[in-house]
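Here is one chain, start to finish.
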Amino acid sequence: MVFVKLVILISCIVPGILQQFNKTPYFNSYLTSGCKTTYVTSLLHCGSLCNEENKVSFFYNPSKKLCRWDCLVLYLGNSSLEQSEWIRYERSSKGNSALGRTASSSSTFDSIDPPSLAVDGILSSSVTEGHRCFVSQLEPSPFWQVDLGTVHSISFVRIYNRMDNTGERFRDASVLISVNGATFWNCGSFKGPGVTRQIIDIACAKDTNGRFVKVQILNSYLQLCEVQVYTL
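Its structure:
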């Protein structure tokens, strides 16, 4: 009887955990380092560890039964890496709902650095090469905000840091969510300091609904090359 109950329990848990993640292509344009790595008994075990820590993505090596997560991820643009035996899994979503949407900010460093640049879909942008990143003035608690148009169920927010230099300016960051644009609550935070070319993923709690997504830091220039809001 105990064995039967265990089988039933596993048959319910396994689909539930694995359905929360999608298998994604190994990104040749991304470089990972500093990951937490541990031996696991299965893909389910790996997914469970990352689900418990509310992580957006993880890597699983089926031949060596290894799991890694909580990595420092850098965007390499069009650079190419060798094929990896690691398989990447990411939180399930319908895609990025912020692309091309209306964005605003507390300030703008220059007219050529508007908030719209953070939702233009250009990932390999930099300030020194074409001015394709949003940059705020130096001020207390600068923020950037996007209007998704309608209320969505938000899975996670992905932030592409500045690509050329001074990535350490992105620190003490909060990602805030609002239904009406007036009252915001916290989705997640990033202590930092960030690294140039870093990609920062912030996972929202289950059943987080919102129309407005705000990124805010403390007492520095806010620099965002791209912000993606993945919704369910």
